[in-house]
Write a structure and sequence with these properties.
There is one protein chain. The chain is 58% helix and 16% strand. The chain has 4 domains: 245 residues, no CATH class; 96 residues, SH3 type barrels; 216 residues, no CATH class; 94 residues, no CATH class. The chain has 20 helices and 15 strands. Helix 3 packs parallel to helix 8, helix 8 runs parallel beside helix 10 and helix 9 packs antiparallel against helix 10. A hairpin with a 4-residue loop joins strand 2 and strand 3. By secondary structure, the chain is α+β, with helices and mostly antiparallel strands.
């Protein structure tokens, strides 16, 4: 008896831990993918080392675990107890004289242990990781400053300068045939050209070193309301050194400074600021400290709540427990957000607002455990089931019934319905978690009454979240549906009726095709406009003002058909160029030999652009000054479309528009199209991902489903993680120009398809 004195406790823990670890892995992977989009510039930049990108991913984990650990405790506890209740094991325990306290105590101890782990993570590890993540972003910016210019690309990162380099080595930081347009405030405009150039960095100071340099300084004059070119000064130098304000010194100071953001402070620093900080800073620090403590104590509270939910479930099993736990999880985080806002606005005491959700979870969990005499209403879970269709319609002969569904029979339709329901449930659940985490991220910017903007932003974020999560949702749906089919020996009945495993796969493939078609339609017709809206709303929430990318502003263009560089403002209403300027270069494409300006540029044909009110300056004859020529026609291949500002983002274009956009970009020199090519390649394969996941999930479900449904869910997490990792890895290789974008996009898809086809061919039938 002594050996078995803890058998009940071990059995309860063993029933909960698999679901806890499974949900923890699934939620962590999903939120890691969501958070990695915030640092796409670091993770996908060709100037960022691999080790720095890996550091960013690792530094994201502690803050993600701060949210996913409480989630996993609630889901694991409720699901485990629901399974024990539906299998009547809780009834057997009570019949053997085991009381509720003994059944619940190991779960509370597990919640206490998880709370201690979360406290250490939230008060020590997460702030340090947030600070390291901030420093990683600064180090990535420093790497970019080492050589901020890529060949044949316009760069505006350096203040007051537009730089164009025709050739060079990005890794070494060497430039060849350099053009710089330099305009500082009200200072005269300078045009700097040089044969070679580089940036020398010493400490926090940076210098631009140019060889065989020529500086053209134009002194502008006012004529009425317009600005016209004035006197021109030309200087030649074998070597020119210019001190640059790249912001490197400020970045280094930030790297060396102590954490200033609240999320980067540990509990000692937050406590010190809450006691000694100035005015409002004390209240803000105290609220941040209590909020972090409430989040860290959430595992114990949610373990109690999950136990109360789980022990009351008698029907529906794991699915019922998981559904109730996810609904409770959503309510918990909404209460956490609402209490935080109430405390911040002063409507309730600060401590009450931050602890509201945790306290209510403890109260509700305790009440559920104390009132276990009557369970949930019988048959409540039937609300989530669709009514069964009759096998035979009134007035239809039986002979027609057998031939009516030759392709999809009764079992096919039953499987298809189960697949669609499981997919919808998995997709809705993961999208809700995605939005909740995003809500916490945006909460720091909600200082005023912009809740309507936030709700609209989350609404327009749903299509992007759905497209991203659809493949893993399809995999989960297939694994759960067919694992239950195998576990209940329904698959044996299929095979006994003479149906092969390939025939059994028909509903799965049909469901995957429907999902893939939905992803394609969303990607092509809904996602571009939704992304434009959510980007605009995000800018409004973060900056307090409406911001949107427009075609207004100075535009720079280098045509592939000539060595000339154009700068102008594009008038989209009249489709003309306002105040255009052309810089014509010598035969070596090193120095400017002629500058042409005009009041307006008008197209007379695809190969003819006319400047009105034109002025010309010949650099070999500076004494001649500016020469008025009235109208001047430039004859060279210069299609009108090339001069239109190109300011779109890949996510804001459908596939056809993105393909045409890239073709136009390639005709323009000075635009890096690598990221657009990677996005286009991914656009073609994204709708096929659910189909690949279904092909891979079916044989896995039949193989592991004979054991437990938990094994199927574990397989879903493992396969989903492997697929996401391979797609991200190949995409990074493409960003680093180690693989062509189509190869990087198709290889993971073909690889997993081959594995799925092989496993399906080896499946027992």
């Amino acid at each position: 008896m002594r050996l078995n004195s803890r058998l009940i406790e071990r059995y309860v823990i063993a029933a909960i831990l698999p679901y806890l670890f499974l949900s923890l892995a699934l939620l962590t992977v999903m939120l890691l993918a969501q958070q990695s989009t915030r640092f796409a510039e670091i993770l996908g930049s060709t100037r960022t080392p691999f080790n720095l990108a890996a550091e960013v991913l690792l530094e994201l984990l502690p803050n993600i675990l701060l949210f996913t650990l409480p989630m996993a405790v609630l889901v694991g506890t409720a699901t485990g107890f629901s399974r024990l209740g539906s299998d009547s094991e809780l009834v057997a325990m009570k019949a053997a004289g085991v009381g509720h306290v003994r059944i619940i105590m190991p779960v509370l101890l597990l919640g206490l242990l998880t709370t201690l782990l979360t406290l250490y993570n939230g008060l020590v590890l997460a702030p340090e990781a947030a600070h390291q993540l901030y420093q990683s972003a600064l180090r990535a910016a420093l790497y970019k400053l080492e050589s901020p210019v890529e060949p044949n690309t316009f760069n505006t990162d350096l203040p007051d300068k537009v730089i164009y380099v025709r050739e060079g080595d990005v890794a070494q930081g060497h430039w060849g045939r350099v053009f710089i347009h330099w305009q500082e405030g009200t200072e005269p405009t300078r045009i700097v050209t040089a044969r070679t150039g580089r940036i020398d960095t010493s400490g926090g100071q940076s210098e631009l070193v140019l060889s065989d340099a020529m500086v053209v300084t134009t002194l502008e004059a006012r004529a009425g309301q317009s600005t016209v070119p004035g006197q021109v000064v030309i200087e030649r130098s074998a070597q020119l050194r210019v001190r640059l304000n790249t912001g490197r010194d400020a970045l280094i100071k930030k790297l060396e400074s102590a954490p200033n953001e609240l999320e980067q402070m540990n509990w000692h620093e937050l406590l010190a600021r809450s006691r000694n900080g100035p005015g409002e800073a004390r209240r803000t620090a105290l609220q941040a400290l209590h909020k972090r403590l409430a989040l860290c104590c959430a595992p114990l509270a949610l373990a109690l709540l999950g136990s109360g939910i789980g022990v009351r479930v008698r029907r529906g099993g794991r699915a019922s427990g998981m559904l109730l736990s996810l609904a409770s999880l959503l309510a918990y985080y909404l209460l956490l957000l609402g209490g935080d806002q109430l405390g911040r606005s002063g409507r309730v005491p600060l401590q009450l607002g931050t602890w509201l959700a945790t306290g209510l979870s403890i109260l509700v969990g305790t009440l559920l455990l104390l009132s276990t005499r009557h369970g949930l209403p019988r048959g409540w879970h039937r609300v989530f089931r669709l009514p069964r269709t009759h096998l035979r319609s009134a007035g239809k002969p039986a002979a027609r019934q057998h031939g009516q569904y030759a392709l999809l029979g009764l079992l096919d339709r039953s499987l298809l319905r189960a697949l669609l329901l499981n997919f919808a449930f998995a997709l809705a659940t993961m999208v809700c978690i995605f939005l909740i985490f995003t809500l916490f991220e945006m909460l720091r910017y909600m200082n005023g009454g912009r809740w309507s903007l936030l709700s609209r932003y989350l609404f327009f974020l749903i299509p992007m979240a759905g497209v991203s999560i659809a493949p893993i949702s399809m995999l989960v749906a297939v694994l759960i549906t067919y694992a239950l089919l195998a576990r209940r020996s329904e698959a044996v009945a299929w095979w006994a009726a003479g149906q092969s495993v390939y025939r059994m796969a028909l509903p799965c493939l049909l469901c995957a095709v429907l999902v893939s078609g939905g992803v394609w339609l969303c990607q092509e017709h809904i996602l571009p406009e939704a992304n434009r809206r959510q980007e605009m709303l995000r800018a409004q929430i973060r900056g307090g003002a409406a911001q949107v990318v427009t075609s207004i502003g100075q535009h720079w263009l280098a045509l592939p058909s000539s060595s000339n560089i154009f700068t102008y403002s594009y008038n989209s209403r009249t489709e003309t160029l306002e105040t255009p300027t052309v810089f014509e270069f010598d035969d070596e494409n090193v120095h400017v030999r002629r500058i042409i300006t005009g009041g307006q540029g008008v197209w007379l044909g695809p190969d003819k652009l006319e400047f009105e009110q034109a002025r010309v300056f010949e650099l070999p004859r500076p004494s001649a000054g500016w020469r008025k020529v009235g109208t001047l026609q430039l004859t060279a291949p210069m299609p009108h479309d090339l001069f239109k500002p190109l300011l779109s983002k890949p996510l804001e274009l459908n596939t056809n528009a993105l393909s045409a956009y890239i073709k136009t970009l390639k005709l323009q020199r000075g635009v890096d199209v690598r990221s657009f090519e990677v996005a286009l390649a991914e656009r073609w394969v994204t709708p096929l991902a659910p189909l690949v996941m279904a092909l891979l999930g079916l044989p896995l479900a039949l193989a592991v489903g004979r054991h437990t449904a938990l094994a199927a869910l574990s397989a879903a997490v493992t396969v989903g993680l492997a697929f996401w990792g391979s797609v991200s890895g190949f995409q990074q290789l493409s960003q680093y120009q180690l693989l062509p974008p189509p190869v990087a996009a198709w290889v993971p898809l073909l690889l997993f398809s081959a594995v799925g086809a092989y496993l399906l061919s080896k499946a027992k039938t």
